[in-house]
Amino acid sequence: MQRHPYDLIPELAGLATYADAARIGYSVDENVQRLLRYHWIERRLMASLVARLTGEPIWELKCAFALHQWLHAEHVDALRERISEMRNPVPSLDTSPDPGIDALLDDVFGEARTSRELVAAVYDVAYPALAADYREHLATINPLVDHPTRRILRSALADLEEGMAWGARALDALAGAVSAERAPSPSPSFHPRRDERFHGLYNFDFPPHVVYNAHGIPADERNLALLCKRTLEMDVPEMMASFMTERVDQPWEFYRDYSRQLWDEARHAMMGSVALEARGIDWKREIPLNVSFALRLNLHAKPVERQMMLFAIEQSLMPADTGKRFEYETARAAGDELSAHFHDYDWADEVLHSQIGRRALKREGITSEEARGRAVGVHEKTWAALDRYRHLDAQQAWWGPFVRKALGHESAVGDADLGPINIFSE
Ligand SMILES: [Fe+2]
Ligand SMILES: [Fe+2]
Ligand SMILES: [Fe+2]
Fold it and tell me: Is 420 within the bounds of a domain?
């Protein structure tokens, strides 16, 4: 064959050589059958991580579950799209293509009785098995004719590999922790739990809820309150996980949108922790990050009531003078660039969330006004339900000493009575 200099330019857009692209891969039908399986496994993994997040006590595992459940949702979304592109009719995507998959995953998760066993089941059993399927699939398909599938699976595989690497390091760490062997509730429980480094789970007085926008408090103290509030935002994933799990017959968009929101809320909590770490604050031990929000809603409200409550709270964050803009400006006024950066994005995410909430409720014929109205009643009844748990912890004042230690000066709140901290807030 005659060679021209142009012939040296990587052929086929650089995807493969002519020889590699001459391989016969899976047929469209076979491809669809396999993708349906992956789709279902990804979806089950997502649901399993969501279902375990609230009852999982270890903070770092909650963070990872929040990320990984969203990555699974992204994979599910891409696979659904790809399946729908490969000729009609689109098979049902909301039922299992093979009961064997469910039985296998039920076994893997069912045997995980402790945090360590759960991490091993997900990252050392389920992920490697799925990654092996993806590698085999990528090695078999024709890289040119099935490039759209290849792109999706390569990206999903990279996510799984990062998850496995995280899981391996987590398992190493857990091997040295006796308490990781303590059995969490064997069935997914939506009673929120925190690990032994935390305290005051049932100390429901959380002054940051009122300090951040209280009159006469300087910006540095209000900003510190915001950082505490951000860190407490883990209670939103802990709440969302319950309605995402208990509402079983929703369209895929419901799970996809709330999955993204769950990850955002966990990231907001992590942003708070990053800012506190940057100040050298031992936030896990010093701040009583109570579990009241998820506790009262998960155990004392219906799933759709929890959704309405979340929506109403996010709506309440939108006014410029008291909501997310005000929070961002508080961080700026305090001269805390990192906090301002975090609140800039927290604000953007929360705007997205209020749209997600509105869409989800609209699909069920619930208007924004109705949701806001009903949320008031849900707030009141679930707030009252907290009385059953108050005895579990001392309702201790902690803000004054915390401010003194964190900021090096007295709190401007002083001994003033903040009043009962019964806020309509996350
Ligand atoms: Fe939030
Ligand atoms: Fe947030
Ligand atoms: Fe939110």
Answer: no
CB contact at 8 A, 343 and 331: yes
- Residue 387 CA to ligand 2 centre (angstroms): 27
Using the mean position of ligand 1's atoms as its centre, give its distance from the Cα of residue 222 in Å.
18
pLDDT for 179 beyond 90: no
Q: Helices marked H in 183-302 — which ranges?
A: 208-211, 219-232, 235-246, 252-278, 283-286, 292-300
Q: What spacing in Å lies between the alpha carbon of 343 and ligand 2's midpoint?
A: 8
Q: How confident is the model at residue 40 (pLDDT cuts 50, 70, 90)?
A: very high
Number of domains in the chain: 2
**Taking residues 106-110, what's their average pLDDT?**
91
CA distance 56 to 241: 12
Q: What is the CATH number of the domain that holds 351?
A: 1.20.1260
Rounded to the nearest angstrom, the distance between the alpha carbon of 359 and the centre of ligand 3 is 14
Expressed in angstroms and rounded, the spacing between residue 353 Cα and the centre of ligand 1 is 8
Give a yes or no: residue 200 inside a domain: no
Torsion angle defined by CA atoms of residues 178, 180, 185 and 186, in that order, rounded to the nearest 10 degrees: -100
Q: Is the model more confident about 319 or about 273?
A: 273
29 with 155, same domain: the answer is yes
Q: How far is the CA of 54 from the centre of ligand 2 (A)?
A: 18
Least confident of 101-110, 237-246, 278-287, 334-343: 101-110
Measured CA to CA, the distance from residue 35 to residue 212 in angstroms comes to 49
Structural domain including 333 reads 208-407
- Together in a domain, 52 and 126: yes
Task: Say yes or no to pLDDT of 420 above 90.
Answer: no
pLDDT at 419: 57
Residue 425 lies in a domain: no
Confidence band for 322, pLDDT divided at 50, 70 and 90? confident
